[in-house]
Amino acid sequence: MPQTLDLGRLTCLVVEDSSFLRSLLMSCLNALGINQIKVAEDGGDAIEFLKLQKLNPMKAGILSVDLIISNWQMAPVDGMILMRWVRRHADSPNRFVPFIMVTGHSGLTSIAEARDSGVTEFLAKPFSIAQVAQKIQMVIERPRQFVHSASYFGPDRRRHDGVHNGPERRVLTDKSPGVEVILG
Amino acid sequence: MADPGKAAVTVRLYRFRNVLKEKTAGASGTPGEALTIDPNALQAANAALEKMSEDYPDWVGKIIVELRGHLLRCIDTPAVRARRYAMIRHIAHDMKGQGGTFGFPLITTFASSLYDCVGPRSGTTDSHIEIIKSHIDAMSAVIKDRVKGNGGEVGKALTAGLKDAIGKHGKSK
Predict the structure, then answer these.
(1) What is the mean pLDDT of chain B?
(2) ipTM above 0.90 for this complex
């Protein structure tokens, strides 16, 4: 029998410019058991909050953020800019934090762009509560190693080890020259 | 000092212990054990959504008023059409992402079509403005009559009406 998750100790940052959707996400995450939910109205607001959390966790009201759920299309700072900041900026409190991008962009080009910038999971709009829960469960159940190369930093973009139809581009192994495995 | 016989590191693979699983399922869980969200919590979250869905028509009604404001500016000041399109497009993008969540998939369908109508290369003729107006009218009708789900016959009629309007004004562009 599967083990039931207790989400009560998770801290989640919700970044959404629509007040109505923000309220919905907060209510639903709360109902799912997440007690600590911080909100930001756009990417810039989120960045300021994350900086504060790093510099002064007491003032921010939390010690760490376990999960970011962010809308993509927001102004002036959108979800993509926020994610790049989280993944790459020296001021980011946790460059490895799981990042769920909520998006109405369904084109393959957009999805590839977000994936190549380090998104952990996508949540397509319009979404259901079951889909929100499923994404959170995936983040917890199936975390991926992080890859840092000259052109990419983020979760391993290949999710499966199974048969791959197409050219084999994953040529490096743990033993390859130039590869360093960091455990923590 | 770097080992001259060792290749410079070009790729780092970070493998951390699963802290989130430890926080939510405890450290003692069996590796590979299936996890699940509490079904009662899921039910409570759905109830929260249901409750908010009751307020959705009022909320989206205000957004439609905002859209009509942009439409009016497009009608009375043709020079600002392209700029207003960008604003309409932003609103339509939000609307298409929300309707389905709150039980109004027709809002998602019509907003998606409106989004495509006000792209950077869209026409700015009076006929095109009529097409935009038809979208806003169709969304107004969905909300006014609380047309949930696919809307049955009413939904079909609204969809057909919008399609006709697009066809009629599209030809005269």
Answers:
(1) 90
(2) no
